[in-house]
Amino acid sequence: MSDNQTKTGNSIFESAExxxxxxxxxxxxxxxxxxxxxxxxxxxxxxxxAFSPHVTYVLSGLVRVYxxxxxxxxxxxxxxxxxxxxxxxxxxxxxxxxxxxxAVKDSWVCMIEKNALxxxxxxxxxxxxxxxxxxxxxxxxxxxxxxxLSYKQMRGKLASALxxxxxxxxxxxxxxxxxxxxxxxxxAAISTESTIKFLKEFEKEGIIDLxxxxxxxxxxxxxxxxxxxx
Length: 230
Prior knowledge:
This protein is an alpha+beta fold and 230 residues long. The chain folds into 2 domains: 5-137, Jelly Rolls (Sandwich); 152-229, Orthogonal Bundle (Arc Repressor Mutant, subunit A). 41% of the residues lie in helices and 26% in strands. The protein has helices at 11-15, 24-32, 114-123, 125-151, 154-165, 181-188, 192-204, 220-229, and strands spanning 5-6, 34-39, 44-46, 54-70, 73-80, 85-86, 100-113, 208-211, 214-217. Strands 1, 2, 3, 4, 5, 6 and 7 form a 7-stranded antiparallel beta sheet that branches. Strands 8-9 form a two-stranded antiparallel sheet.
């Protein structure tokens, strides 16, 4: 973690979409209950099973959220981009982190005391609705992961992972520049060897274009068919 850990003013929350419209006194309470922290690429933000005193809000950068499923095995759950909350369940009584989070690129996050955020959710219905709406998208991603693990073949799993990583939410982030083939395989829940093999197959079939680490989707329709039917 960087030494650059400081208290900052209301501007962080005023510029963030989900905090817009809060009353000055609400912004002041949040400001008094938060710390802004800088993480370098590759640093762990928090670890699965550790005590969770804060809710983490991503200000900038990109964060990989994953489950440790074995000694050397991980399952990537999602990527968190600016505007996303992490460890939000701690607001409702979870004492420890259910997953780990790692900075995929240099990232600024805001650590917010969970009691302060809980109070705001209880007193500001509009704010609570915005948060619930955003978290519903995360729930859909978890359902997609369950579907992948339950019935899809390896090509279908990889196609679904590529679909997710190439979604509109990450267009500005150029996510493949920051992900290894191992990272992609952990999103697809298949081996790294199989990921490399199927990526080459997709390229031969004209579905994607591989340029070093970058992956460009050339035929979205074919990729969607593979995702749904394989």
